[in-house]
Amino acid sequence: xxxxxxxxxxxxxxxxxxxxISVFLGTAFGQQDSPxxxxxxxxxxxxxxxxxxxxxFALTQSIEEMEREKQRTSSEMEGLKLRISQLEAxxxxxxxxxxxxxxxxxxVLRSYxxxxxxxxxxxxxxxxxxxxxxxxxxxLRDLARNTGNLLELLDESKENLVAQKEELEPIVNSxxxxxxxxxxxxxxxxxxxxxxxxxxxxxxxxxxFFEEQLAxxxxxxxxxxxxxxxxxxDLARIVAEAKLPPEAIKVRLTPVxxxxxxxxxxxxxxxxxxxxxxxAFTFTPGRVQIEMPENNLVLSGMFLVEDNILTxxxxxxxxxxxxxxxxKxxxxFAAELRLDLxxxxxxxxxxxxxxxxxxxxxxxxxxx
Length: 368
Fold this sequence. Notes:
With 368 residues, this protein is an alpha+beta fold.
């Protein structure tokens, strides 16, 4: 009975411990700032503080981009080194084969030289029978054939060696260029890090404040990059399954063919009906803008069309009003935003796309 009581007490304390841990973790996650809270905090910054934060954010992006470039260059170098090792092994094997064939040919020629043509003729004439005569002719033929085969093998090996060495040369040159690029990337990264550190040091007692702001923005960015692939997948699915009345897509006949117009409001309504009411596409001449107010994200770019599928090509963007560099945009669009319009345009094929004021104008032809 005493053992049972002891076990119950132990389980009780274990339960209390787990409960306290869960409460602590829940509180910790609850204290995490939402995008709205971050926006509110940033709105309290003075113009000078906002400018400093933007410069620091730009610097950190440059460092991240150089780190990615360094990683890409390093991976490329490893691939080149591996290919060089493979080619060197192939060249070594081919040189070994070449040397063996050359030695064999040398032995055959030495044998031929010792006996000489006259001795071969003498051997033929000394044949004791017709069958012996034929056998001796066959031996001479084999000798001549083997000599010819060895010469062919030597020529083939030589050609292979030349080809492999020619293939190796540009790869070695490319490796040297890549090594130089890697060195430059490392130097540039270190320079940017030193510049960031010097900038933060110059801020003196304000350094901790700005480091906290940067950390807060970076945390929000990481959340966004984790959510964004699901968003692009959802938008693609919604458009692919969308069913609109015929009047939603306005089709008209022009001198250059049929034109189908899709308004940005129509597209936004499609997404709003599926729960994305805060997402807004805005079409202006030659430009597509995507706004996500809840995430403080604004993106600008254009659509490319192929096989009735629109692919969004991002060109610039802002996060909490701060410019996003190419590296950040690439990170965000690791999964492309592709909108399949086959369901919307029906039995039509899109030949061309023009982005106008408030609408996409599609040049279409009937499917044949």
